[in-house]
Amino acid sequence: MEPLIVQKTITLPLPSDDDRRAHDQRLRDALGLGPLHIPLSLLRSTAAIINAKRELSCIIGRAGDQYRLIDIDRRRSYSVALDLGTTNLVAVLYDNIGQKDIVTRSLENPQVEYGSDILTRMHHAMTGNGEDIYRVLRNGINTLIASLCREAGVNGRDLHGLAAAGNTAMTHFLLGLDISTIPVAPWVPVVRTPGFFSAAELGLDINPEALAYVFPNAGSYVGGDITAGIIATGMHASDRPSILVDVGTNAEVVIGNREWMIVGAGAAGPALEEGISAIGKRAKKGIVYDIEISGDCVSCKTFDQGRPEGICGSGMVSLLYELYTAGIIDQTGALTGKRHIIEINGEKAFSINCDCEDALFITQGEIQNFMRSKAAMFTLLLVLTRSVGVAFRDIESVFVSGALGTGIDVKKAAGIGMVPGWQAGIVKPMGNTSLEGCRMLLRDAGIACTADRLVDKITYKHMHDDPEFMKEFMGSVFIPHTNPELLRV
Length: 489
Known about the structure:
alpha/beta; Nucleotidyltransferase, domain 5; six-stranded mixed β-sheet
């Protein structure tokens, strides 16, 4: 493996009557790396530095088959892994020389000013306001990177690399590209494999010659975040089929192995977090990830044992399971019990008092929203596996990322019919696989070539008007299902 960014110290012989090589050739020969691009900005400062020093520290980036000289006379070097989430931007500062992570930070995507969902933002951009969307994203990324640098005591000029992944629209926003052909037939993006750029081209406030890689997408609805996620799981190198379930703003399911990949997407994500349920939150301190109902007692487990402030995706799964097994809701999700049932604005709601803490509330309508979300998840899995002739029992591993990627209880998820009855050992919570794919690329630049090849084998199956999806969805809205045999493995 060769990292994206490396530091190499060289010793240059002084020019003489017997050695009249130009400074750039002297650098190329001393580095011995083959094709090497030296930007004009460095050529302008090279002569003075070479004349003053014989020993030079060179910062080099690997862009595919080519190397790029990024900086000289620098002893520190860092990179950033960046997940371009629709809801949050998440970044890791990485020490290129020490080969270790330094600090991780996140920031709410400032594009929320123009809409909480990606389609609203795209519509805003398509009405002649694209620069608004591009500008606030750039500013948000720069703010996030500046916070990393402040905490680590790092000079922004010492940031020499960046790897970024996001859905297709977010990738286009980062690059300042037109998105008007993405949400309409025939759903064609401007670019599929963006590749490498300089930081200056992307408007990033780091070393202007820093090498930035943007993960490729396989179409309008299969973005670079999915490509990075596939690589993070290693499923693209396996002989047996595996599944990646990525639940964020949408639910995306990938099934495949080293020979083939198929992806389907559906709107299962929002009900697991903000937007649908008032108490829905992303995983952080104080957010409920597991619930147990025993008699009149409602016990909650929260991240970092914080005071309950909301509930994340895995907590929603646990809540629905506990409500059903305790007889508080029926197969349709209707609140039929009497314990902890209150009324809010004329609508039934369940009070989640978490052992006498200030109660959280989930309304009947929010429960129904989640019922549809869990149905969409299982239907995606069922229709996709059927489409490639794979049974649930044939699956080697199920990797779960996004909203469900932290703390999911597999037994409870199967109990409500959100996933088949897989054994716990098969299901592997992965956290943020988009970010992890970016981190992996910082450590191994060859992953860029792997990612670009990978998108060629990905097939996207459109689910929005698929007749089998609509038929199977109706049975999946019940707990666990109108045909429980479908859940067997």
